[in-house]
TrEMBL record, chains A, B:
Domain Nudix hydrolase residue range list: 8-146
Family annotation (SUPFAM superfamilies): Nudix, Winged helix' DNA-binding domain
CDD domains: NUDIX_NadM_like (cd18873)
Protein name: NUDIX domain-containing protein
Gene3D superfamilies: Nucleoside Triphosphate Pyrophosphohydrolase, Winged helix-like DNA-binding domain superfamily/Winged helix DNA-binding domain
Pfam families: NUDIX (PF00293), WHD_NrtR (PF21906)
InterPro entries: NUDIX_hydrolase-like_dom_sf (IPR015797), NUDIX_hydrolase_dom (IPR000086), WH-like_DNA-bd_sf (IPR036388), WH_DNA-bd_sf (IPR036390), WHD_NrtR (IPR054105)
DNA sequence: CCAAAAGTGTTGCTCGTACACCCATGA
DNA sequence: TCATGGGTGTACGAGCAACACTTTTGG
């Protein structure tokens, strides 16, 4: 590191959140509608500047998560996605934003009321469509977030992070199908997942969804990596 | 994003470089010895603060690369590794550093003289050893860089980025063996790599290394992903 | 009984590993 | 000629796609 501290330019550091969830049969992302310029009224990722010089980046991400979406940080996967710092990305001043990626189970009442600000859930296909306008460079960030999520399902057990605490094999398979936009053979999927030691723990319970044979219920296990990996067809 | 611009804390944004290369039979990382406090005299990653408010992060990384190591940015893989921003990571003031990862072919004269500052090449095993002191949180960054490199060899063609423009199959295999710290079957490796379309382009030339049958020379191809992937034994 | 969903068995293929074997060179 | 490294052939097994088949429920 060079240390010409007297020439250090003024840069504002922000933290943004790409919170993905599977809702209503689609991969959706949590967005807020901006109340002030620039990009007033436009969709944007929830986020904000560091609260103080002493605030850790991860802590800032967790704080923004609760503040803006009403979600708790416990039992929710949160990882750094990347840092975006093009000089002209914010017209007001130089802003470098560290973006975090979160996977959330489907929410009963998606932060409609309460202390959360106006958080909206929108399908990523719709948000990434060229007709949808998104503030700053957030469309690119969302695109990166979705690609990261798709890739993570291949070699980690994070697909289960989209499921409630207890879920069926079909619930998990539908996460994969929706995130990847493909269809998977239920029988091979079942065999494959049960073959990964530590991915799922059977609760012993069974649940009947509408019609047909009741499905076994599972909880998330300790495994974090998926071995062998679950590759999508490309 | 919230927009309480008047409360934005002062944060310095730096760019650090984790330049990895395979040299002398070991995975090595480029470091500099700090000339001023804090951590004076200690080993650190090359890097520095943004040159101006208008400088792009990627551009700053490329600039630091040439300034501190004498390496050109063309024909060298450079990607963002991650951002490190613990509040106490720099005792002087709050610094958030965006770290970039670079893969370099073995260098004939490793920036010994010329316009480059005092850049040193050290084996990562030695640097990561608990007896070696490294400035700031750079040991953690180096550890992340090495893990990322190991993982990237599995599913991308970036192993060839450690090789000179023309190289033999054995050169490439040794990159894998050294980076992963394993030994690979030369015959199966050969078949596997030649089976990936677009990874290597044979030049038609052959070269004789000391003794034995001469090896075919290859150049890097257009492929970036390795399919099927080359998984290490874990 | 029938439809529908859950789960098991089986087959054929792709790919990886292990290793026998041949090829081309320097000493 | 032998040692050394480059490269091909082949056999066995793991893992996966495709799909026939059985199990268990609601109507």
């Amino acid at each position: 590191m060079t240390d010409d501290a007297w020439t250090i330019p003024e840069v504002a550091v922000a933290v943004d959140l790409a919170v993905l969830t599977v809702h209503d049969g689609a991969l959706q992302i949590m967005l807020v509608r901006r109340g002030i310029p620039p990009f007033e009224g436009m969709l944007a990722l929830p986020g904000g500047f560091l609260a103080s010089t002493a605030e850790d980046l991860d802590a800032a991400a967790a704080r923004e998560l609760t503040e803006e979406t009403g979600l708790g940080t416990e039992d929710l996967h949160l990882e750094q996605l990347g840092t975006y710092g093009a000089p002209d990305r914010d017209p007001r001043r130089r802003v470098v934003t560290v973006c975090y990626l979160a996977f959330s189970p489907d929410l009963p009442t998606p932060t409609a009321g309460g202390d959360a600000r106006e958080a909206i859930l929108l399908p990523v296909d719709e948000v990434l469509d060229h007709r949808t306008a998104v503030a700053f460079d957030h469309k690119k960030i969302i695109s990166d977030a979705v690609e990261r999520a798709r890739s993570k399902l291949e070699y980690t057990t994070l697909g289960a992070a989209f499921c409630p605490p207890e879920f069926t094999m079909t619930d998990l398979r539908q996460v994969y199908e929706i995130v990847w936009g493909t269809s998977l053979d239920p029988r091979n999927f079942h065999r494959k997942i049960t073959g990964v030691t530590g991915f799922l723990v059977p609760t012993g319970e069974r649940v009947s969804r509408q019609v047909g044979r009741p499905a076994a219920l599972y909880r998330r296990g300790d495994a974090t990596v998926l071995h062998p990996a679950m590759l999508r067809n490309r």
